[in-house]
């Protein structure tokens, strides 16, 4: 095999004129020049590989950083926040000595290319972030968005994504307790596969990604390193250094959940024995990321011998090893006298573990290959000093026309029969239909702590078996609202997730987000992004729920057409005793139905405007975060004091959607009366925010009303749980059996 | 006195801790057993829990069946030690030939997780004494390879000898022959089933039912009264 001489640091210094393929690796000319300036010479091939991947949009947030700063600057005072933005995941105090870490990330592009593996490795990546904080993962959630439900490609992408999430998560033993499935033609060619995970630990078990203490050993453990997930490095390897070698490999990584399960157990056992000083998972940018982040966050430098990395493919070049995104790998920093025990634990779990380097006194990250130095950098310049762009942004020309195209002026049903027909059509529409066919492919029960899982408003997990302490999580996002007004749309996503957590009886504590947008090089998209971040940061400040971390996914577009701006917001909450949780399903006939909050004529971006009129225009529902906070307080108090037996948040599809879901889940019907001052159409289908439906036992009626009026929350008695139909008096009656058929057959008939 | 019930952890076992909890809630003492260790620590009964041992690679249960601990489990089961295999544990028991038949992929080719209705067909095994013959119960089911199959001769024999312990009711979730959800050996000490009784032991958790608890109280009573 012909191999050109190794591009060592020494060689690079001696050959300043060698041309490197920086453009092919995605660096801009000025970025490359900046690397040369930092190093005072041209980079070696290995250094270029590291800079190019760590300075990519995905790893450096170079387009979004200037906006994301608001999450820190506007962060509300919160006693609950133990670890904030910047670590693998945020950590929140939930009381009784417990801490919870949670985060949502995207795996959008890989999931379009290869739905099963793209989605599976998305779950794997977020779970490793949770382990890296020192926590045992206890649940996952998956907010998903696909193209039109009846588009042929959706039938390729969706079943693969769902099988991938299930195949990986089920095999890890993590209950899948929440998420969303949304269909919209704007996601055709650009599905959004976001994955969230929650982990639980004791306060004293929090671990951070940093390498300190000269002489401490750097251990790489987990899967062997292979050639998967290498994008640009292949170019570098094949075109610059070794023309003879075939190195076109799949750019999507392949997951092995069994290996990850072993990784979880052996990492937790090492944590229990206090063997770990610092830890980092290997995700995007692989070893380049792990070594540069560990070294830059610690007090010293690091020396790594790349020859010691266990390989799946012995022909890999050092650049490829540094950039490989092989899954199921972690990197731990361990004191020398604890290395033996750490390796023993790995051996017990049949996990390969290898010392690949050590922490040094200096401040350099040095990497060696065959005894020669191929990387000599200040790790901070790789991990933290990437470029920051102030990309131009401008409110698009079409925004005014879009907002002027008022959905409230669309033709409404003229007769009771027409209203009934439209409602039946709505509950059967793909976005409003039951997602059971999808969620039953996920294990909800494993670990034996699942209190609530989808289709409940939030997923809920018991944390302590003795006290009943629990945590809840909900994820929400509505790209249609955000398209109409990104600032309001982001706040509506926050408000809905916050409300969903409170509806189940939990107190909202903190936020993670996954911001899915089109190309940042388009000023209109950048404006949507800037507005959404501003809206979310302002909203979090007002609600007192800090953003603890998250993820940005840009370039979600096919050609010129960007997806709807889609900020997905996850809210984490805590409940003192899971026995107090409030389910969605109607529990008992005769209980009284109350509508909390104000109903206005708000149809912009609504499910009705989409399903009946294929329309998107006007303004999204108004947001009143103070009202959301009051509503949440009422829902939490009512749950704690046993005043309500079921509750359901009102969002897309309006009141009737909530009533139908609660009725079908409880297998009990409802009789509704249109309140004074509202017409039946607005009452049933408006999507005004800040509302919830609750079922109150008759014995609690007075107490519940008194509480609402004392605190100033509008409350309207709208009916009673009764029978086996949903009846709106004077309008129509729909048998539960018909509603069930309409609601539950849609997804299987499209996808099964 | 109480009984000591062992729960084996294979690499990839998922419901081992849940099963230990169920044993504790039933009033017995759970004992963790490790797949590489032949020693059963003098337990009175053994549960092989659910999960994806060895990632279900090759075939569900096919590799675990050769774990060192299984040598002892097989030997003692043949001598009368009560053994329960849940889901992946059931798959291991068929691979180990402690129970007849085999498990194939679900006929619809998807993982399925649901609250499953069952009928208790045999309330006389070591693990089902606290149920009534013919009792209808709900137990969570969650699997990828749950389709029970056996040759016609074996099926006839199982039916004739009353060795079908549980049958799926209303809906066959995976295409199992004769709607079989669980079977026992000739002596009635070894039972395997696909649904997960350990996920139905607390009123608040999972489906909110406790229909699975009698598995663990049954064995406890049998051992204490023995």
UniProtKB/TrEMBL annotation, chain A:
Mg(2+) 2 binds at residues 129, 281. Its EC number is 6.3.5.3. One of its GO terms (biological process) is 'de novo' IMP biosynthetic process. InterPro entries: PRibForGlyAmidine_synth_PurL, PurL_linker, PurM-like_C_dom, PurM-like_C_sf, PurM-like_N, PurM-like_N_sf. The active site is at 58, 107 (proton acceptor). Pathway: Purine metabolism; IMP biosynthesis via de novo pathway; 5-amino-1-(5-phospho-D-ribosyl)imidazole from N(2)-formyl-N(1)-(5-phospho-D-ribosyl)glycinamide: step 1/2. Residues 214-369, 588-725 form the PurM-like C-terminal domain. It catalyses: N(2)-formyl-N(1)-(5-phospho-beta-D-ribosyl)glycinamide + L-glutamine + ATP + H2O = 2-formamido-N(1)-(5-O-phospho-beta-D-ribosyl)acetamidine + L-glutamate + ADP + phosphate + H(+). CDD domains: PurL_repeat1, PurL_repeat2. Residues 86-201, 456-575 form the PurM-like N-terminal domain. GO terms for cellular component: cytoplasm. Monomer. Part of the FGAM synthase complex composed of 1 PurL, 1 PurQ and 2 PurS subunits. HAMAP family: PurL_2. Part of the phosphoribosylformylglycinamidine synthase complex involved in the purines biosynthetic pathway. Catalyzes the ATP-dependent conversion of formylglycinamide ribonucleotide (FGAR) and glutamine to yield formylglycinamidine ribonucleotide (FGAM) and glutamate. The FGAM synthase complex is composed of three subunits. PurQ produces an ammonia molecule by converting glutamine to glutamate. PurL transfers the ammonia molecule to FGAR to form FGAM in an ATP-dependent manner. This is Phosphoribosylformylglycinamidine synthase subunit PurL. It comes from Streptomyces misionensis. The lineage of its organism: Bacteria, Bacillati, Actinomycetota, Actinomycetes, Kitasatosporales.
Automatic annotation (TrEMBL), chain B:
Pathway: Purine metabolism; IMP biosynthesis via de novo pathway; 5-amino-1-(5-phospho-D-ribosyl)imidazole from N(2)-formyl-N(1)-(5-phospho-D-ribosyl)glycinamide: step 1/2. InterPro entries: Class_I_gatase-like, PRibForGlyAmidine_synth_PurQ. Pfam families: GATase_5. Keywords: ATP-binding, Cytoplasm, Glutamine amidotransferase, Hydrolase, Ligase, Nucleotide-binding, Purine biosynthesis. One of its GO terms (molecular function) is ATP binding. Its main location: cytoplasm. It is found in: Cytoplasm. GO terms for biological process: 'de novo' IMP biosynthetic process. It catalyses: N(2)-formyl-N(1)-(5-phospho-beta-D-ribosyl)glycinamide + L-glutamine + ATP + H2O = 2-formamido-N(1)-(5-O-phospho-beta-D-ribosyl)acetamidine + L-glutamate + ADP + phosphate + H(+); L-glutamine + H2O = L-glutamate + NH4(+). Its EC number is 6.3.5.3, 3.5.1.2. The active site is at 87 (nucleophile), 196, 198. It comes from the Bacteria. One of its GO terms (cellular component) is cytoplasm. Part of the FGAM synthase complex composed of 1 PurL, 1 PurQ and 2 PurS subunits. Part of the phosphoribosylformylglycinamidine synthase complex involved in the purines biosynthetic pathway. Catalyzes the ATP-dependent conversion of formylglycinamide ribonucleotide (FGAR) and glutamine to yield formylglycinamidine ribonucleotide (FGAM) and glutamate. The FGAM synthase complex is composed of three subunits. PurQ produces an ammonia molecule by converting glutamine to glutamate. PurL transfers the ammonia molecule to FGAR to form FGAM in an ATP-dependent manner. NCBIfam families: FGAM_synth_I (TIGR01737), PRK03619.1 (NF002957). This is Phosphoribosylformylglycinamidine synthase subunit PurQ. It comes from Streptomyces misionensis. The lineage of its organism: Bacteria, Bacillati, Actinomycetota, Actinomycetes, Kitasatosporales. The gene is purQ.
């Amino acid at each position: 095999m012909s191999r050109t001489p190794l591009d060592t640091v020494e060689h690079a210094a001696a050959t300043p004129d060698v041309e490197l393929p920086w453009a092919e690796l995605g660096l801009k000319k000025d970025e490359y020049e900046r690397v040369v300036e930092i190093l005072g010479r041209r980079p070696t091939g290995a250094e270029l590989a590291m800079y190019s991947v760590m300075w990519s949009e995905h790893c450096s947030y170079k387009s979004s950083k200037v906006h994301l700063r608001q999450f820190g600057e506007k962060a509300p005072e919160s006693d609950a926040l133990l670890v904030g933005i910047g670590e693998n995941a945020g950590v929140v105090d939930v009381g009784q000595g417990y801490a919870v870490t949670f985060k949502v990330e995207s795996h959008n592009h890989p999931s379009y290319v290869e739905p099963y593996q793209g989605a599976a490795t998305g779950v794997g990546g977020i779970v490793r972030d949770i382990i890296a904080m020192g926590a045992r993962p206890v649940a996952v959630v998956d907010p998903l968005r696909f193209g039109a439900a009846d588009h042929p490609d959706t039938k390729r992408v969706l079943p693969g994504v769902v099988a991938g999430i299930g195949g990986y998560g089920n095999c890890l033993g993590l209950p899948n307790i929440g998420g969303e499935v949304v269909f919209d033609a704007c996601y055709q060619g650009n599905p959004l596969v976001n994955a969230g995970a929650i982990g639980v630990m004791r306060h004293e078990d929090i671990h951070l990604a940093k390498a300190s203490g000269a002489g401490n050993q750097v251990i790489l453990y987990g899967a062997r390193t292979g050639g998967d997930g290498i994008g640009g490095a292949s170019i570098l390897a094949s075109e610059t250094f070794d023309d003879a070698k075939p190195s076109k490999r799949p750019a999507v990584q392949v997951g092995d959940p069994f290996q990850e399960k072993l990784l979880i157990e052996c990492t937790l056992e090492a944590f229990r024995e206090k063997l770990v000083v610092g830890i980092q998972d290997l995700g995007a940018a692989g070893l380049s990321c792990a070594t540069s982040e560990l070294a830059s966050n610690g007090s010293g430098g690091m020396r790594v011998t790349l020859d010691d990395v266990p390989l799946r493919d012995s022909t890999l070049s050092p650049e490829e090893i540094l950039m490989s995104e092989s899954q199921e790998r972690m990197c731990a920093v361990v004191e020398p006298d604890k290395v033996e025990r750490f390796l023993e634990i790995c051996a017990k779990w049949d996990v390969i573990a290898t010392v690949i380097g050590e922490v040094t006194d200096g401040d350099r990250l040095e990497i060696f290959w065959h005894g020669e130095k191929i990387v000599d950098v200040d790790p901070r310049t790789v991990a933290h000093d990437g470029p920051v762009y102030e990309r131009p942004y401008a409110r698009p020309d079409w925004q005014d026309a879009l907002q002027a195209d008022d959905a409230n002026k669309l033709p409404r049903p003229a007769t009771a029969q027409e209203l009934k027909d439209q409602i039946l059509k709505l509950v059967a529409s793909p976005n409003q239909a039951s997602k059971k066919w999808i969620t039953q492919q996920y294990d909800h029960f494993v670990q034996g702590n699942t209190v609530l899982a989808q289709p409940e408003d939030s997923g809920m997990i018991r944390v302590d078996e003795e006290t009943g302490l629990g945590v809840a999580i909900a994820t929400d996002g509505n790209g249609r609202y955000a398209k109409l007004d990104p600032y309001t749309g982001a706040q509506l996503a926050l408000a809905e997730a916050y409300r969903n957590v409170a509806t189940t009886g939990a107190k909202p504590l903190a936020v993670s987000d996954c911001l899915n947008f089109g190309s940042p090089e388009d000023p209109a998209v950048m404006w949507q992004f800037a507005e959404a971040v501003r809206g979310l940061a302002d909203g979090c400040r007002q609600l007192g729920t800090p953003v603890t971390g998250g993820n940005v996914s840009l370039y979600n577009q096919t050609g010129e057409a960007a997806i709807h701006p889609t900020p997905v917001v996850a809210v984490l909450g805590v409940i003192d005793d899971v026995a107090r949780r409030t389910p969605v399903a109607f529990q008992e006939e005769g209980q009284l139905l109350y509508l909390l909050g104000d109903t206005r004529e708000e149809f912009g971006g609504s499910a009705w405007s989409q399903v009946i009129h294929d329309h998107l225009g006007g303004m999204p529902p108004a947001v009143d975060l103070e009202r959301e906070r009051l509503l949440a307080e009422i829902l939490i108090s009512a749950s704690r004091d046993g005043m309500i037996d079921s509750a359901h948040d009102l969002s897309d599809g309006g009141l009737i959607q909530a009533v139908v879901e609660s009725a079908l889940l409880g297998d009990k019907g409802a009789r509704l009366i249109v309140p004074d001052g509202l017409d039946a159409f607005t009452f049933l289908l408006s999507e005004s925010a800040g509302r919830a439906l609750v079922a109150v036992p008759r014995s609690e009626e007075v107490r519940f009303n008194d509480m609402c009026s004392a605190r100033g929350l509008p409350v309207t008695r709208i009916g009673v749980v009764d029978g086996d139909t949903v009846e709106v008096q004077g309008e129509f009656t729909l048998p539960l059996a018909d509603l069930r058929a309409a609601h539950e057959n849609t997804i299987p008939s499209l996808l099964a | 006195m109480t009984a000591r019930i062992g729960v084996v952890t294979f690499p990839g076992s998922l419901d081992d801790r849940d099963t230990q909890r169920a044993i504790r809630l039933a009033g017995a003492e759970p004992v963790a057993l490790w797949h590489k260790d032949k020693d059963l620590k003098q337990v009175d009964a053994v549960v092989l829990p659910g999960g994806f041992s060895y990632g279900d690679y090759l075939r569900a249960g096919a590799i675990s069946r050769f774990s060192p601990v299984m040598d002892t489990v097989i030997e003692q089961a043949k001598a009368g030690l009560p053994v329960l295999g849940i889901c992946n544990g059931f798959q291991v028991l068929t691979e180990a030939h402690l129970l007849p038949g085999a498990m194939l992929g679900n006929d619809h080719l998807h993982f399925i997780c649901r609250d499953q209705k069952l009928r208790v067909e045999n309330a006389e095994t070591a693990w089902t004494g606290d149920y009534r013959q013919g009792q209808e119960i709900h137990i969570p089911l969650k699997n990828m390879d749950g389709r029970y199959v056996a040759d016609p001769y074996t099926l006839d024999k199982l039916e004739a000898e009353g060795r079908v312990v549980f049958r799926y009711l209303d809906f066959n979730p995976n295409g199992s022959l004769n709607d079989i959800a669980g079977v026992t050996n000739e002596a009635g000490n070894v039972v395997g089933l696909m649904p997960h009784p350990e996920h139905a032991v607390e009123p608040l958790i999972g489906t909110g039912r406790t229909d699975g608890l009698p598995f663990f109280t049954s064995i406890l009573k049998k051992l204490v009264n023995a």
